[in-house]
Design a protein that fits this description.
The chain is an all-alpha fold. It has 3 helices and no strands. Keywords: Coiled coil.
């Protein structure tokens, strides 16, 4: 009876240790998979950031691309949200790593480095966007001023033209009146 009891206890202990090992493996695999997904996302983000930088450089050459700045700003906000998500996951993973082992830590540190790099890139791009926006605002102010001057010049020219036409018309009227008067006098003399 005692032997049976010991055998049963051994079996229960084996099952408990196997279950905990399995759980540890599952946690580890999940964390690794999560890190792989995060790394892929971060690589995609890096591409996006590089594209943004390229667009910004194009915008410097072509000031008409001011609409793109708004889209870039939206993308930057999306990326910031993703970075926050990465950081939250990293914190959670770090907690689980301490409970399991240090095997996953290098992957996490790599992701942390990449996340920091992307954050720095974002700061640079935000500065560029701000500078561009200021340039565009200045250009817009200048353009508005030039438009205003152009409009005023147009009005002045139109007014000069109207006055000159009126002046020409009045001279013509005087000439016509004079001619008509002279003609009338001639007719009267002829009749007499």
């Amino acid at each position: 009876m005692m032997e049976l009891l010991f055998l049963l206890m051994d079996t229960i202990n084996d099952n408990i240790s196997n279950t905990s090992t399995k759980n540890k493996c599952i946690i580890q695999v999940n964390s690794d998979t999560d890190n792989i997904l995060m790394t892929k996302k971060i690589n995609n983000l890096t591409k996006k950031i590089n594209n943004m930088d390229k667009k910004l450089n194009e915008s410097v050459c072509d000031p008409h691309k001011i609409e793109d700045l708004h889209k870039l700003q939206i993308n930057i906000n999306d990326i910031k949200d993703l970075i926050q998500e990465f950081q939250d996951k990293l914190q959670n993973n770090t907690i689980s790593i301490n409970d399991i082992n240090n095997k996953i830590k290098p992957s996490n540190s790599e992701i942390k480095d990449k996340t920091n790099l992307i954050e720095n890139q974002i700061k640079t791009i935000e500065k560029k966007i701000k500078k561009l926006q200021n340039n565009f605002d200045e250009m817009k102010t200048t353009n508005d001023l030039m438009d205003s001057i152009d409009n005023n010049i147009c009005w002045i020219l139109s007014l000069i033209f109207i006055i000159s036409q009126f002046n020409l018309f009045s001279k013509s009227l005087i000439l016509m009146t004079t001619f008509c008067s002279f003609d009338l006098i001639s007719v009267i003399f002829v009749v007499i």
